[in-house]
Amino acid sequence: MKFSENWLRQHVEVDATREQLAATLTAIGLEVEDITPLGASLDGVIVARIVKCAKHPEADRLQVCQVDAGKGELLQIVCGAPNARPGLVAPLATIGTRVGDIVIKAAKLRGVESNGMLCSAKELGVDADASGLLELPDDAPIGAPLAEVLCLPDASIELKLTPNRADCFGIRGIAYDVAAACGSKVTSFDVTPMPALNDAALPVELHAGADVPRYCGRVIEGVNAAVATPLWMSERLRRSGIRPVSFLVDVTQYVMLEIGQPMHAFDRDTLRGPVGVRHARAGETTKLLNGETVTLDEQFLAITDGAGAEQRVVALGGIMGGYDSRVTDVTRNVFLEAAHFTPAVIIGRGRKLGLHTDAGHRFERGVDPELPRIAIEHATRLIVEIAGGAPGPITEAVLPEYLPRPQPVTLRRARLARVLGLTVADTEVERILHALGLAVESNADGWRVTPPTRRFDIAIEEDLIEEIARIHGYDTIPTTLPGSTAGVVTPSETLVGESELRRQLIARDCLEAINYAFVDAALLQRWDVAQGSVPLANPLSAELGIMRTRLLPGLVEALARNVARQQPRVRLFEVGNVFAANETPESGPVETKHIATAVYGPAASEQWGVASRSVDFHDLKGDLDSLAALSGAQLEYRLSRAPWGHPGRSADVFRDGVQVGWIGELHPRLQRALDLDHPVIAFELGLDALQQRVLPRAGVLSKFPSVRRDLAFIVPENLAWEAISATVRKAAGTSLRELRLFDRYVGKGVETGFKSLAMGLILQDDSRTLTDRDVDVVVAEVTAALASTHGGRIRS
User: Fold this and answer.
1) pLDDT of 585 above 70
2) What domains can you pick out in the chain, each with its CATH number?
């Protein structure tokens, strides 16, 4: 929420300085995100009128202007602004005035004297517009100080509001909090009904039940829509972050900012009536104010015109008005509307169409249901006073049974003291609650408090305690530790903690990444892992519309962003939840915790002691094996056919015969999509597979020596070591203590399609020393098993 400081001070009387006001707002929970001072130093800047313009004799883009500064004589000023023209009223910085970092002096520009400077809004620090001179109203008093005309100095204050404070999306809502915090009062607000001067009206019908329980409309005839928006109004809009468009549009925006109720103005002559509100029908289309034609479904609210077969959609309820019924400068008759839409029916509708509007932003959070009639009256008064016209009666359709009614909340004195840890005087409690606009009745135990209709966020006792705490001051709450009994939790020895796994990867030179749990659906489709995914009903954006089914797509995207920012060596890991659709949707998605790592670039940091080489599969397999070692898990690797993995360079990971993850190099198509020069090596496993640990049991160490025999076998090239290892271990029996693969050879002496693998068998018995005969029997069994199972033979 952005607003003008002077505008706020008009609604609440406070003596605080700007800095004190900002500190107070932040202290009471309305965090000040930014303050932009406006027109802090405008001494010497006055209102002037250009009387004549002539082309500069030496420069095509410059004009020599004769300017009336209200002193009885014309000043000659050289100006390069494209909108400089006779009759224009604009700011003039006189000689001796400081504008930004320069002091205006009499000078010659290309040989022509210039006695001052005509200024743009940006040069004066009152707006960001630097496209031309700041255009002032024709009736602005010539020679008057600009600061007086523009009500300066001022400041644009931007608040970072929490979603529960929807009432502070209007100046009046903020004023109540400021008044309570500063011990002042909110100024009165004129809501005297404007009398009807004619019978002009459009009937209003409600057909959306509880979704739209109130809709107000009013016809105003004979309006001069071409009238210029008053300077005070347009400046307040600008300082609140809204560009003035035209008077009728600006009025609705002004009322919305001041009291928090979104409105819309229709050109009455484009409507036939009656005006209705209903749920849209699937496939209905309408053209919005932004010129875009959208297709609707039953989740949208449609503002309709006409009846029967001739009924048409003229606006999108709570989001945006329609193009065909918009007001223009030639509009003579206006139909104002203000309605109450329940938040649930508006949430997410704008984002579904790729729209974000001020009206939708407010309705999603909740708007006071009593404001529509007040907004109509306020807007009517402004229109009639500035643009003329004759208003008709307000037409209101209401479903009282669906309007939210504030319920009394009990605040106990003892509970307040217990939660806050201090005693707040009864008089202070009542002052705060009254200042916030709450109705208070005292009783023996405390108070019975009824919140106003604008405070949707007050429903339970703790809400009232929060109000007391933030207004009374969080700094007044003592910083004492709560009393409690702390128990010592002993970590389970059968479980490897997440922190241990994280420390292990960090020790192996990886950095932890944290990514959103929701991703772009296109990303999962590109990886071919979208099956079983869970779409979000109310996504933050189209790019974050689906829950991730794996960690790797998001983690690799993060890796690619780092590489794009000149990081030649990236090693990232992430621990987080992945989601899958449940067979019973009402139970919610299935969440599973995974761990993933992705690496890219050189295997080691740049140094002189080790030759540079790219990281490969075995480097990352070593990292994964080190994680498995923490739990004593024996992982098995089998050739993978995962669609995101490189064929022949990736493997499925198994523990105890059950697949628990994947490791390998990314598929070349993904590599090309990421525009990376080197392979990305990655793994992802279910976290449980690395956490489950069998309690170690002490065993007797053999007192007898071990025996090692080295064997070299010729086996088919495509035979995996895991298969050979399993066969050797089974054939060797219990005397095999360790199996080591120490050489792989292809080339001269080994026929094409085969490879030579050299392995060391370490044998040992617990009860006796193994003899040569015992070892020969084991070697024979291993040789026979490899020959019969895999066609292997001893390399000669």
Assistant:
1) no
2) 2-39+155-182 (3.30.56.10), 45-152 (2.40.50.140), 204-402 (3.50.40.10), 409-472 (3.30.56.10), 498-691 (3.30.930.10), 707-794 (3.30.70.380)
